Amino acid sequence: MKRCTAALLALALPLTAGADDSSTLDRIEVTGSSISYRDLLHTPAIAITKHGDYLSQGFSLINDSRDAERRKQEIHSTIEKLLARSGKRYSLIFEDGYSITLNAQNHRVELLDDSKRPDVSRVKLRLRLELPAEAKDGLQIVADLREFVRSSVKVGRTEIELDTETALGMKRPERYRYELIEAIAEDSQRLRRSMGSGCSVELEGLNSRIEWERVGPVELMLYIPYSMTVSGCSEAPTP
């Protein structure tokens, strides 16, 4: 059994080193509802559930004042009031090729014309909340975040349009790789003991990167898409 565990860890080593150096997978973000039972059937038996690091709510500010300059002023004033109300609890994010955290100095972002309606301007933003280590009531956290955006002060003819779903994010998911590897190793050892000492357990796919699914308002299920083959079970199970 010691040889089996060592083999598991050896398989993980090359990719782990690469993951530490990668900047492209330093963060994951999942938008949408929790995983369905049908989706769950396609995930490996061994996975771990972790709280996300942050939650964000996407929304649009839309303004149909006749004058373009007035539309710009009213939307920017709405953003200014939202920033003042957010304080240090929330971050307001604007994406223009990359994410920009807005503040009192850079909140006058570029607006887009509505392609379907003349004399209408809009901008897409996200309000982000850093989640505590133990976020117990995820549903309430989501509800509070959505209500905060919905109840924001709107200047002039500015309206707020919320996205249907929140997004749940995690920084550096690969930091959980060895916790997953150890759980898989423990499961394979237990299976071998249950099936008989003559069984051979072969695992493949442990050099894959961590994958994830959203399983709750603030929870992510992390897993490695491995496969297991059991063979040579000629002896009776150990009592």
Could you walk me through the main structural features you see in this protein, from its secondary elements to its overall organization?
It is a single chain. This protein is an alpha+beta fold. The chain has 2 domains: 2-51 and 172-230, no CATH class; 54-171, 2-Layer Sandwich (Alpha-Beta Plaits). Helices cover 31% and strands 31% of the residues. It is built from 5 helices and 12 strands. It has helices at 2-21, 37-40, 68-86, 138-150, 177-195; strands spanning 27-31, 48-51, 54-63, 90-95, 99-101, 112-113, 121-130, 158-171, 200-204, 211-214, 219-223, 227-231. The strands form 3 sheets. Strands 1, 3, 4, 5, 6, 7 and 8 form a 7-stranded antiparallel sheet that branches. Strand 4 (90-95) and strand 5 form a beta hairpin. Helix 1 (2-21) runs antiparallel to helix 5. The radius of gyration is 24 Å and the shape is elongated. The model is unreliable at 1-24 (pLDDT under 50).
